[in-house]
Structure formats: C-alpha cells, structure tokens
Amino acid sequence: MKLWGGRFIKPTNELVDEYTASIQFDQKLAKYDIQGSLAHVEMLAACKIISEQDAAKIAEGLKVVAEKIESKQAELTKDHEDIHMNIEKLLIDEVGSVGGKLHTGRSRNDQVALDMRLYLREAIVGIAQKLVSLQQSLHQQAASNLDTVFPGYTHLQRAQPVLFAHHMMAYVFMFQRDMERLIDSWKRVNQSPLGAGALAGTTYPIDRHYVARKLNFEGICDNSLDAVSDRDFVVEFLSNASLLSTHLSRLCEELVQWSSIEFNFVELDDAFCTGSSMMPQKKNPDVAELVRGKTGRVYGNLMGMLTTLKGLPLAYNKDMQEDKEGMFDTVDTLKGALELFAPMIETMVVKKGVMYQAVANDYSNATDLADYLVDKGLPFREAHAVVGQVVLHCIHQNKYLLNMSIEELKVFSTLIEKDIYTVLSPKAVVNARDVVGGTAKTQVEAQLTKAEIILEENKTWITERMKQIELW
Ligand code: ARG
C-alpha cells in the first residue's frame, strides 16, 4: 500500500511507478532529508504538536535509518517513489506507527525544497573550497613567473609582450568573481522553506523560525507559495556554475594550445596527460580538453532548468522533480574539474626560455617604437604609419626591429636614436606598462599582494560556512 494510497482503489500502473519515481537519483538527498526531519520533529515537540516521547522515538529511528542508508543496508525502492517517502517508510518499519507522526504539518513540497537548499549549501561550500585551491595554484605560478615574459595575443596574433604572471593573475581575478557570485548566492539559498506545507502553510501551531535556527538558516521564505514553487536558487547556482565553467574552459583552451609543439610554452605533468593507443609519440592534454568539453553539459543543465520552470503555474508541479539531476550533475562535474585543475596548474612546467625566444623574435614591440616616436614629438597617427613601414620592411628582409641597424632605422625616421635598442627589449616593453593593472613587474606584484588578501577572505568565508553546515 502506498503512503498516499487511501484515496485509490486500483494500484498504480507499474510503468507509472517506474516513470514518476525519483528515488534512483534523489537518494543523494537522504542525508539532508534526515537533517530536515530531525529539526522538524524537534520543533513539533517543542510546539507541543507531538509528545516529547514520540519525538524522541522518531529522532532515534531517523538516526538508525540514516545509518542504514549510509551503509547501504536499507532498501530504497521505486514502490515508495522518492527519498522522502522511502525514509518515512523505513522509519515506520523501524519505530512502528509513531513514525507516521513525522509528517505532521509538513508536505513533500516544502520538504523537497528544504532538501535542495541544504544540499546546495554544502555543494557551494565544497566548490568554493576547490576554487580557492585553484586560485592558489594560479597565484603560485604567477609568483614564480614574475620575470617570465611571453607573448600577449589579440585575435590570437602576437600583440604585446606581457608577464606570464600577469596572464595567470587574470584568471585569479576571473575566478574571484565566480567566487563572489557563489558567496552572494548563499544568502538566497540559505532561507528555510519548511512550514510552507503543500502550498498554503499549515493549520498546526508550528514555529518556522525554530526549524530555521536548528538548521542554521539565515531566515525563512516569506511566502508559502513562493517557498514551494520557485527553484530560482537552483537556476542561480547553475548560472554561476556556467560562468565558472566558461572561465575554466578558456584556460583549458590555452593549456591545449600552449602544450602543443607549435606553441611549446608549457609542459603539463605526465600525471595529468594521457597517451594515444596508436601513436606512440602522443601526450594529450585530455584533462583540459574534457573540462572544456564538459562545459557543454553545464550550460545544458542551466538551459534545462530554465526551460522546465518557464510557464509553470504556482505552486508545486511534478515538473519540478526535474530540478535534481542537472543540479547534481553540475555539482559533480565542477568538483571533478576543479579537483584536477589545481594540481595540474601547480605541476605545470613553464618553459621560460621558449617564451622569451617567442617575444624576442616577433613584432610585438612595434607599439613601443611608435610610442618612442610620439615621445619625440611625432603625432601618434604618423608614428603608427612610420612603424608600419618599418615592420613591412623587416618582414621583407626577414628581420625583427631589434635586428635593424641604426642607419636602417633612420631611413624611416631621423628621430630614432641608439637608445631604441634598450627601449624595444621585451623586458623594457613590459615594464613600460607601469600603470595600475598593467603588466609592469611592480604592477603585477601589486596584483599578487591584493590577491593574497582576497584569497584569505575567501578561506575565512569557507571556514565560517563549514561550521554553519555542520549539523549533526
Ligand atoms: N519527488 C518529488 C520531487 O522531487 C517530491 C515532491 C513531490 N510532491 C508531490 N506533491 N508529488 O519534486
């Protein structure tokens, strides 16, 4: 007999049971479901809705059920549709009919919204932890490459030399905004929907704040319909995850390029690469490729959730059961990627010599020749044209600016003097960009210092939240 079977005279079609069940995937929520139930039952007793003795029996029973599920001793079945009803059934098996009092003043609708929020809280903290480790790895690579000059690109064409540290720090700050988005979303996730009942609230004299306090929520959802209807906190998480994945994926693309023979700027550690079954020489950056590839499913999960919600009338609709798999998948996908990424970046060998050769043998110092002429009084537009001519000449002669003799240079402009050779050296070019946020060494050092403070703040936030989600 189904827990809700009273009103039915026929059993459910087996295929319907199969089709509507969510136990295959929502068993991930078991721990949170039990945390929520423990808080709920304690509140029921505190509000004298059930007796202290009954509450104690139920709480004991719930703990036994938790252990049985944890150790895979409990049978979770489609006959009981979802994790909420499976747990209730296991509880009744454990403690007898008193277990049937647990669901007083509660619906699966507010219960599942609660479980989702509890799950997501923990997921956000877990992802934040891994994200800060990645930021640290990037910061560390930056610190070790404060003198490494390498080509900066626009349109994937050599543009101006930058410090490799500057490039690493760009990602540190991108990931910082991802971190801030996760942190900011916390206050919206961390609100208790319990007590909303099926949709309208409940007739029992419950204390919603009691439950919220027990579960370390910051507050309660103000409107019962909203509490059970919306999954905007899931959408927000999936959206934050998507942006984070975008950033990861761009870094992946760079690692794939940089580790190719054509670039040869970095070597990824053997431990993070794989070989080819056919071509013995291959060392493939599979992790970077796969993280880049999995960005597709992260975006897909966001689109899926948005589409599921679009057009749903208030309040709960069974459609909303579709909120789970995408969210779980995104959490697992991101955790998997971040976990590998931090050590992959940390162990990456930066080929400083190759990078330097690249900037020594290109035209990425051309802007600096133009700036030099401007300094000597030529309007920038004219200087630009002169240098364009010089570059064209060099290309025809198979030379770079620094290979030109002073006589050759003077043909293009008499303003050019011997000091040009120092001005155009890659290091000088980098250090000339001594503006806040620029690539000059002192400016990049300032970025590193600023980031150190920010990363400490991230860690403090994580430590505080870890305490908040530690329930029993
Ligand atoms: N398994 C359901 C879900 O995940 C739980 C809520 C079901 N509520 C209901 N009234 N059928 O959405």
UniProtKB/TrEMBL annotation:
Identify the domain of life: Bacteria
Q: Can you list the GO cellular component terms from the UniProt entry?
A: cytosol
Q: Which InterPro entries match?
A: Arg_succ_lyase_C, Argininosuccinate_lyase, Fumarase/histidase_N, Fumarate_lyase_CS, Fumarate_lyase_fam, Fumarate_lyase_N, L-Aspartase-like
Domain named Fumarate lyase N-terminal: residues: 6-300
Task: State the PROSITE patterns in the record.
Answer: FUMARATE_LYASES
Q: What is the lineage of its organism?
A: Bacteria, Bacillati, Bacillota, Bacilli, Bacillales
- Signal sequence span is none
Q: Which EC numbers characterise this protein's activity in its record?
A: 4.3.2.1
Question: What protein name is recorded for this chain?
Answer: Argininosuccinate lyase
Q: Which UniProt keywords apply?
A: Amino-acid biosynthesis, Arginine biosynthesis, Cytoplasm, Lyase
Q: Which SUPFAM superfamilies does the entry mention?
A: L-aspartase-like
**According to its UniProt record, which reaction does this protein catalyse?**
2-(N(omega)-L-arginino)succinate = fumarate + L-arginine
Q: Which GO terms describe its molecular function?
A: argininosuccinate lyase activity
Gene transcribed to yield this protein = argH
Write down the HAMAP family for this protein, in alphabetical order: Arg_succ_lyase
Q: In which pathway does it act?
A: Amino-acid biosynthesis; L-arginine biosynthesis; L-arginine from L-ornithine and carbamoyl phosphate: step 3/3
**Family, as annotated:** Belongs to the lyase 1 family. Argininosuccinate lyase subfamily.
- GO terms of biological process kind: L-arginine biosynthetic process via ornithine
Occurrences of domain Argininosuccinate lyase C-terminal (ranges): 363-431
Its annotated compartments are:
Cytoplasm
Identify which top EC class this enzyme belongs to: lyase
Which source organism?
Answer: Ornithinibacillus caprae
